Amino acid sequence: MSNIKKIDGTYDSAAEPQVRRETSKDRRNRIYKTIRERISLLIYPPNSVIGETELAGEFNVSRTPIRSVLQRLHFEGLVQIRTGVGTVVTDVDLKTMKEVYDLRMSLTELSAELSPIEITEEHILAMESMLERAKNLHGRRDSMGYALLCNDLHEVLMSLIGSKPLQEISDNLYYRSARIWLTMLPNLDWDQIVTDQELETSEMLAAMRRNDLRGMVQVRRFYLHCVLTRISDYLQGNNSLSSRDSLKMSERRMQRGRD
Amino acid sequence: MSNIKKIDGTYDSAAEPQVRRETSKDRRNRIYKTIRERISLLIYPPNSVIGETELAGEFNVSRTPIRSVLQRLHFEGLVQIRTGVGTVVTDVDLKTMKEVYDLRMSLTELSAELSPIEITEEHILAMESMLERAKNLHGRRDSMGYALLCNDLHEVLMSLIGSKPLQEISDNLYYRSARIWLTMLPNLDWDQIVTDQELETSEMLAAMRRNDLRGMVQVRRFYLHCVLTRISDYLQGNNSLSSRDSLKMSERRMQRGRD
DNA sequence: CTATTTTAAGTTGTATACAAATGGTACTTT
DNA sequence: AAAGTACCATTTGTATACAACTTAAAATAG
């Protein structure tokens, strides 16, 4: 009578010690993260339709759990579900994008104030890995690698937010706006973008090493401001900023005058 | 061949000019708001189970759209869906509650900075109505009336937030935390609570009349701080603050020392 | 009588058939 | 030829039957 399922869901047999079968909730969460990543990496670009039946076939489930995931993505502003048409990946206009970025900048500063988290050696190691990856991006224009780096960097920064509600909101806002930056990447100077990323990561690392959480979020805030400015300038046909050399943190006061 | 549905969904007949049949999305939204209000008014108190079949029967739909609504409420943190058990209205622990209130306080200040909105005569009229309702709450301990007033006041303040993302977040956080305040209302001094509400509304109205949005959010922030302090003190058995007289805005510096 | 197992009732999760809506295409009419 | 109309393929929305899960009570073994 061994090897029989017990009340708590574990098994007696030592052959499969703690491998619990994937629960329904876990599966939906896995599908959710998969689709969200595809949206963030532009595998599903803005305005593309993704279709419930297609996804149901790919993940070997019915439309029901797929619908659940897509509705979640809808509530989070990543897709738009149109009856009779399909599920369309949202495209963001400049005004909304500016609102999201302004909010992210403010929330980034907040995250250092509301229940801050201690910076550990693991965080620093993770960030060093990010710096290495940034350095390796020079030259080849690997948009996917850049996007993956941005996502992973975001994940590390999220783990430094102590307030859970703020963490969820920051995560939401990131995925809501990040892919728009990627869409206009092909039109910008690749080496400059990568250099920016490298500098930011490097300066963030320096702040982490002196246990300066407030300094970290300042670096992040400046990075967000820089991206927003580049986007605005590019969309308005004014490439003056994007043609400048990469900006170092020490010059940030020149760029940060409010409005 | 008149009175036939046209491509754009309108009708030729003048008898029913622009009364479009309620669309699926509209119906789900209506059910969503209904259930959310019930949760906020403690008609569905924390830890109560609400059940999909029951709701489906009440709204004369199948479980499918009900599930859609409940999952939305789940993503927003208002309910917890447990397989085989039911949909349980979430209860919030003190730590989470403090995190939410701290965040709301910061976001309230932000809302005056990020794309502020002009205060109109309509806003002032709405707020005057709130003040009247607050005054009428004295004496009778009308918890439902108080809760409705809080919800309506929240709605007015939301309409003064220009940034749409910030507006959605503020709305979410309000409904996530407001009902917890209501649950402990029966144990507090009713007349004092009402007097607080009246004072806050009155001072907010004064700020609105001098077109001082920043002053408004300061009043609101103070109110949130006041509520949070009362909750903390009550839960720790220390009723020293709740036994004080109502606090006027002018005394707020005594209460606002950080931490 | 106690501890364990079985059973049963009730709930959410999934699959599927069908209804409703959209957008394009071919056809008809003027 | 141009405008309108009916049709149709495709997609999301809904209803419903069934599967999986949880809980508690009842039955059973010690």
Can you characterise this structure?
The structure is a homodimer of 259-residue chains. Chain A has 259 residues and is mainly alpha-helical. Chain A has helices at 24-40, 52-58, 63-75, 94-111, 121-135, 143-158, 164-183, 190-209, 213-235, 252-255, and strands spanning 79-82, 86-89. A two-stranded antiparallel sheet of chain A has the order 1-2. In chain A, a hairpin with a 3-residue loop joins strand 1 and strand 2 (86-89). In chain A, helix 4 packs antiparallel against helix 9 and helix 8 packs antiparallel against helix 9. The termini of chain A are far apart. In chain A, 29% of the residues are buried. The interface between A and B is medium-sized, with 25 and 26 residues. The structure holds a DNA duplex (30 and 30 nucleotides).
Short description:
The structure is a homodimer of 259-residue chains. The first copy, chain A, is mainly α.
Which two chains touch over the largest interface?
A-B, 25 and 26 residues
CATH architecture assignment of the largest domain in chain A: Up-down Bundle
- In DSSP terms, counting alpha (H) and pi (I) runs of 4 or more, how many helices of chain A? 10
What is the tally of beta strands of chain A?
2
Global geometry of chain A: globular
Flag low-confidence runs of chain A.
1-18, 239-259
How many discrete structural domains of chain A? 2
Mind telling me the CATH superfamily name of the largest domain in chain A?
GntR ligand-binding domain-like
Please describe the structure with a list of short key phrases separated by commas or semicolons.
homodimer, 259 residues, mainly alpha, Arc Repressor Mutant, subunit A, Four Helix Bundle (Hemerythrin (Met), subunit A), 2 domains, two-stranded antiparallel ribbon, 10 helices, disordered N terminus, disordered C terminus, DNA-binding
